[in-house]
Amino acid sequence: MKRSSFVIIGLGLMGGSLGASIRRRFPSVRVIGVSQTSRKIALAKRKKFIHDGFTQLKPALRGAQFIVICSPVNTIPHFIAQIDRYAEPGAIVTDVGSTKAEIVRWAARRRFKRIQFVGSHPLAGSHLKGLNHAQADLFEGALVFVTPLRNSSQTAVRAVSSFWKKLRTHVQMTSPEKHDQIVSQISHLPHAIASVLMHSVSSKALPYGASGFLDTTRIAQGDPALWAPIFLTNQKNLLSDLRGFTKALHQLVHLLQGKSKRPLSNFLKRASSKRQKLG
Fold first, then answer.
1. What would you report as the CA-atom Rg of the chain, rounded to the nearest whole angstrom?
2. pTM
3. CB 64 within 8 A of CB 88
4. CB half-sphere exposure, 25, CA atoms < 13 A
5. Domain of residue 192, CATH code
6. How many CA atoms lie within 13 A of 2 on its CB side?
7. Which of 70, 78, 217, 243 could form a disulfide with 14 if both were Cys (CB 3.0 to 4.6 A apart)?
8. Mind listing the pLDDT tens digit of every residue in the chain (279 residues)?
9. What are the backbone angles phi and psi of residue 40, rounded to the nearest 5°?
10. CA torsion sign, 48 to 52 to 54 to 58?
């Protein structure tokens, strides 16, 4: 009897790490990778992240029961549509995209012939990119949002949740809209601010940046090909949060102009207290 197979579309940091984790936690499953380049497939096989790989989607989906899309958010709808053409009937599809509302609502308007789609997003990753930085324990202990709709198949929702739990993550159900509001504040806004900070510091000062500066701006190193689509697919929330940030920044400017120590200290103290509560 042929072994069941999981398919990973996209062999970068997330796809490679997912393959390594699946092979560790699902030892009886065959892991298939899909990439545009045979070089990545060969590297993923050499690192034992996948058992086999294809540059074309159709042969990769033969016999697959579970498919995870690990590509930039702007490409996910295209892959979902293509998967529905070639997948085995009843195949379950999820993704790791950092925005959910646009993708899930698009999927809700479709009448899929073969697949069942449930969106998900593991809050795990790195400022580093590429297959060479993939690691099997990337997802362990991470929070994963699963974002079903009211008419989502409960069988598919349970399967996606069970998959992530098997990888030793913590699963939380939420709506696609709520997800995007949350990640805008705790992920997309910080990335935007880190990028602005890098643009704000002079080239003469940059060589002297020490641990505080490096920690604060680390995420600005993220792959622009991934982050530009994330910003654009969560535009409304991010613009709102940037306006909130601008308001707080103006408050700090006002406090500095006032030259009074106590209000400025209180501003910094409140921020310090909030951060300390996070641990």
1. 21
2. 0.93
3. yes
4. 20
5. 1.10.3660.10
6. 8
7. 70
8. 345 899 999 999 999 999 999 999 999 999 999 999 999 999 999 999 999 999 999 999 999 999 999 999 999 999 999 999 999 999 999 999 999 999 999 999 999 999 999 999 999 988 778 999 999 999 999 999 999 988 899 999 999 999 999 999 999 999 999 999 999 999 999 999 999 999 999 999 999 999 999 999 999 999 999 999 999 999 999 999 999 999 999 999 999 999 899 999 999 999 999 999 998
9. -65, -40
10. negative
Q: Report the distance separating Cα 263 and Cα 260, nearest Å.
A: 6
Q: Are residues 98 and 234 in the same domain?
A: no
Q: Are residues 10 and 146 in the same domain?
A: yes
Using CA atoms, how far apart are residues 2 and 158, in angstroms rounded to an integer? 24
**84 within 8 A of 58, measured Cβ to Cβ:** no
The first and second tokens of residue 95, run together, are: 């993704």
Axis crossing angle, helix 101-109 with helix 176-183, rounded to the nearest 10:
160
Residue 116 in 3-state DSSP?
Answer: strand
Element (H, E) at 147: strand 143-147
Q: Is residue 243 helix, strand or coil? A: helix
Domain boundary residue, one of 116, 144, 174: 174
Is the C-alpha dihedral spanning 5, 166, 75, 217 positive or negative? negative
Domain encompassing residue 58: 5-174
